[in-house]
Amino acid sequence: MGPGEAAESTADRYVRHVRNWRNWLAKNGNKTVWEAEYDDLRLFAEELVYQDMAPTTISQRVSAISKFYQDAKKFPDYLDIPEVPENPYDGFDKDDKKLLRGDTKKKTGLKDSEKDEYPYLESEEVEKLVENVPAPRLRNELIIKLLYHIGFRRGELAKAKIKHIDRTDRSVYIPPRKSPEGRHIAYKQDYLGFQLDRWIDHDRDSMTYASESDYLFPTNNNEHISADYIGKVVKKAAENAGLQETIAEYSDGRKLHKVTAHTLRHSYAMRTLKTAEDVDIRTLQSLLGHEELDTTLIYLQQSKEEAKEASRGFVP
């Protein structure tokens, strides 16, 4: 701070953070602050993390944005909008808050060769997960299968709606989140179709919020299941199946597990690379909904390295 310059006040900092949020939304989603949702704030926070911004700074920015929506609820008469929207921060779960604290960058125990690799499961291991899901079985079997066979992010699956399931065409539409366009993923009737039909036409109705919800997975307490709960379903199934492993630890002692909801998304990507014919890297990028090609290239490099290692067994 130079001579004669006043330190930025808390109020000025608050206004600056909210203004940056407004500008980011306009640039990245063509949205106003009143149209923002959880996914927008999560992506905003992720971008700050990958810019190597200090965790305290990220938390300050997100806290200012959250306070803005809290204040809007308190003083609705001052706002020229029909209804004050929900606070996007209310959707943040434990993993989202770990992201804000910077914990995702403080892992120990991984070998250097593993730091840029994604853990994934073979199809036989996924079947073990399906066989060992906690109750209610049909819903949780579908959660595992949709993560693995469609490549959902857990947040995308939590917000999936019935209208996104085309049971005639046997495909799922996933609205855009990290890519300019949404994606359509086909599924097999004998593997997913029959269970989807049974869930949508029968078992889903047993959930308290089913009649007033458009979402695929309503619960007894909310219109849709939470991303955090989806993660718990996967981890419990992995523990029941004896597949769970600790592959690293965070600096505060918390453990990083091999089998998570995102592991199933990685498994979808690796299975597609290994088994689908004529799948190029751009197609895989589209199927996964990656904004940046570099993210998808990690899977390709990992697949090539594994093929090279496997070939050593055939060298005379």
From TrEMBL:
InterPro entries: CB (IPR044068), DNA_brk_join_enz (IPR011010), Integrase-like_cat_sf (IPR013762), Integrase_catalytic (IPR002104), Integrase_recombinase_N (IPR010998), Integrase_SAM-like_N (IPR004107), Tyrosine_recombinase_XerCD (IPR050090). Residues 1-73 form the Core-binding (CB) domain. Keywords: DNA integration, DNA recombination, DNA-binding. Pfam families: Phage_int_SAM_1, Phage_integrase. GO terms for biological process: DNA integration; DNA recombination. The keyword DNA-binding applies. It comes from the Archaea. The keyword Calcium does not apply. Residues 116-312 form the Tyr recombinase domain. GO terms for molecular function: DNA binding. Belongs to the 'phage' integrase family. This is Integrase/recombinase XerD.
